[in-house]
Specification:
By secondary structure, the protein is an alpha/beta fold. The protein contains 10 helices and 15 strands. The strands form 3 sheets. Strands 1, 2, 3, 6, 7, 14 and 15 form a 7-stranded mixed β-sheet that branches. β12, α8 and β13 form a beta-alpha-beta unit. It starts with a strand and ends with a strand.
């Protein structure tokens, strides 16, 4: 065993669009051979500690470790660490029967949430929650969600608990129907504009075009947070009409351990339960294809 690590028996691993970016080369390869997967639910089988006893159920997310010494770590911004470890990208992840992970980057999971439904919370849920923080969402705000996949569908429950109005713009008819079923204030097609000016907007599609569309929906002083690790080219836009007036565009980079702890507590309190489609480990490629083609119900989860 590597010092400071625990060995997990993987019981479920969520499939994220970032996994697709890695497999298809949108993110530069960093290892010749790699096991993807960074939404891991596992059981501690070796390397147990007082905080993580043998047999305890834990979750692992995208950030698998930080150096702890760089300027960002020392200033409370570990999500921007200069030398991070990324689960399923720089180290092997959870599309496997076992995974070796850093003990200080595992999170005990609430007992009331089963393995398969816990997995999507560990990235889609956490990063959606961080996006709300980066956007500066306050209770009662008018918030736009541009794209309505797994992450947005988990964030809407939090926004509703904060008494926010939620305006969803998304291209897929099934995603629009899901947004309506979850109680969105208004739902529109890809090129529709919300009927009111928004205080905040979060974009979930890896498209520069939707960022500009979201920006066009903001009031003065509003914020667009981009929830994407990879984005295609940003189109030119009119500064005077769209950005002037102290509107802001912010990127969402990774997550902190505190984000994970806070979100998991909120998810437990709100009883957030994502829709999932389960795949066997042998069908991991089919799970990735389902994410690419948006044919999985809610989130795709691999169950070894």
């Amino acid at each position: 065993m590597t010092a400071g690590h625990v060995l997990l028996r993987v019981v479920a691993c969520g499939v994220c669009r970032t996994d697709l970016h890695i497999v298809e080369g949108d993110l530069p390869p960093v290892a010749r051979e790699l096991i993807p997967g960074h939404q891991i639910v596992g059981e501690v089988v070796e390397g147990a500690t007082a905080e993580l006893p043998l047999g305890s159920r834990v979750g692992v997310s995208w950030v698998g470790g930080v150096d702890g010494d760089c300027w960002y770590c020392r200033h409370g911004m570990e999500n921007l660490c200069d030398k991070p470890t990324f689960t399923g990208y720089t180290v092997n992840g959870g599309y496997a029967e076992y995974a070796l992970v850093r003990a200080d980057f595992t999170f005990p999971l609430p007992a009331g949430l089963d393995d398969v439904h816990a997995a999507p919370l560990l990235c889609a849920g956490i990063i959606g929650f961080r996006s709300l923080r980066v956007a500066g969402v306050e209770p009662g705000d008018r918030v736009g969600l541009v794209g309505f996949g797994s992450s947005a569908s988990l964030a809407i429950s939090i926004l509703q608990s904060w008494k926010c109005e939620v305006y969803v713009v998304t291209r897929g008819a099934s995603h629009r129907e899901r947004a309506r079923s979850l109680g969105a204030t208004w739902v529109g097609k890809e090129d529709d504009r919300p009927p009111v000016e928004l205080d905040r907007a979060i974009t979930f599609a890896p498209s520069g075009k939707v960022v500009v569309s979201a920006l066009a929906s903001l009031r003065k002083g509003g914020v667009v947070a981009i929830n994407a690790i990879h984005l295609d080219q940003m189109p030119a836009f009119d500064y005077d009409k769209l950005l002037w007036g102290e509107r802001q565009i912010r990127s969402v980079a990774n997550m902190t351990r505190q984000d994970a702890r806070d979100f998991l507590r909120i998810a437990h309190d709100l009883k957030i339960r994502p829709e999932v489609t389960a795949f066997s480990l042998e069908d991991a490629n089919k799970a990735l294809l389902a994410v690419k083609e948006e044919t999985a119900d809610g989130s795709a989860v691999i169950v070894p």
